[in-house]
Write a structure and sequence with these properties.
With about 375 residues, the protein is α/β, with parallel strands linked by helices. Helices cover about 40% and strands about 15% of the residues. The longest helix is centred in the C-terminal third of the chain and has 23 residues. Pathway: Cofactor biosynthesis; adenosylcobalamin biosynthesis.
């Protein structure tokens, strides 16, 4: 299994196990925008050299001001972090919940952050159905009555389940009456054209029990920088800042982040590309094996990844991962997501050339081979 660290995108492990395939390898396991990083970032490198010899601003004031203007919140409600994972970890530690609710399958970091904070994890499972892994509203309502903190991905990774803002506002109101916090992970929301109508960022100033986490990794294709941020009421944001290690965000990351926030055209072009390429890849996968043996799991959100269920006897996530890795293609085996078992794989939407290479590799497979 290539996900022995619990995440996709582990290119070092892929290189160690398949050294001959690395030169022409393609990573479908990490949901990173293949159009990025934006051209403006690539052109900026020489100008960034002076920042290597300076200490960064420990509070990222200029970047926070830009993010505050973008989302309509106070800069004091924002904290820039070393990726979205650090934002989740800081919020859980700052809230100090006794019980944390998660609805699985979901990003494993929710459960792990709760465990590191010493909280009891209250888990609910959503089984696959003809509608995919859509999360019943009643399930979240039930959890609010049982926990101090409920963590939801919107959209959810890896299932693409999506919450309407009206639903989240209602959940936040119910949670507030029970002294329960709601943590919303919007790491993939900026891929959706309806982002502005779904995000809860603008609601944070009037909802003190709601916190939102954002990542700049996926949309802008800068996972190596580790850059994310959180929005919360001022007291909670300050508590997170006090828990954050000094110099957590480096100066290069902050300067690039300031540039990324301004590049609205890149986001617009990405959304246009994704709508077209996702349709193409979906149709190509549906045609595999005459529509049998490989089933696309329906998703509520048109995010930059797809979820497949393997129906042919003898085929598991690790078997398909291994076969494709031999051809230099790295996909995400989903058995590390609670409740998914060994029949699911996740693939990122890549460029047309890369997607075509994936399809051609899968077409060459003998799906009726059971061993």
């Amino acid at each position: 299994m290539l996900e022995w660290l619990g995440h996709g995108g582990d290119w070092v492990t892929f290189a160690e196990r398949y050294p001959e395939q690395v030169a022409n390898g393609i990573d479908f396991s990490a949901n990173i925008n293949p159009l990025g990083p934006p051209a403006a970032v690539r052109h900026l490198w020489k100008e960034l050299i002076p920042f290597l010899s300076r200490y960064p601003d420990p509070r990222q004031r200029r970047l926070r001001e830009q993010l505050a203007e973008k989302h309509g919140v106070s800069p004091q409600m924002l904290l820039v972090t070393n990726g979205g994972a650090e934002a989740i970890d800081l919020l859980v530690r700052a809230i100090r919940p006794a019980r944390v609710g998660v609805i699985e399958p979901c990003f494993s970091e929710y459960r792990q952050a709760a465990a590191r904070a010493g909280a009891e994890v209250v888990r609910r499972m959503v089984p696959d159905s003809a509608e995919g892994f859509a999360i019943p509203y009643s399930l979240a309502e039930q959890l609010i009555r049982e926990v101090d903190l409920l963590i939801l991905g919107n959209p959810n990774n890896p299932t693409g389940a999506l919450w309407e803002r009206s639903q989240l506002l209602a959940l936040a109101e119910q949670a507030g009456r029970r002294n329960c916090h709601l943590l919303l992970d919007e790491a993939f929301l900026d891929f959706l054209p309806q982002e502005e109508h779904l995000s809860m960022m603008a609601a944070v100033p009037r909802l003190p029990n709601v916190a939102v986490v954002r990542s700049m990794t996926k949309m802008y294709a800068v996972p190596g920088l580790r850059l994310g941020y959180l929005a919360a009421n001022r007291r909670l944001a300050e508590r997170c800042r006090q828990l954050q290690p000094p110099w957590s965000v480096n100066g290069i990351a902050e300067q690039i982040g300031r540039l990324l926030v301004q590049d609205e055209d890149f986001v617009r072009r990405t959304r246009q590309w994704l709508a077209q390429e996702r349709r193409w890849l979906t149709a190509a996968l549906e045609n595999l094996a005459n529509g049998e043996g490989v089933r696309l799991v329906p998703m509520e959100a048109a995010v930059n990844y797809l979820l497949l269920r393997l129906e042919f006897p003898g085929w598991t996530d690790l078997r398909l991962q291994s076969r494709l890795a031999e051809e230099g293609i790295f996909i995400r085996a989903c058995r590390t997501f609670a409740g998914m078992g060994e029949r699911y794989v996740r693939i990122a939407v890549r460029s047309r050339e890369e997607n075509r290479r994936l399809i051609q590799a899968m077409e060459r497979m003998d799906w009726e081979e059971t061993q």
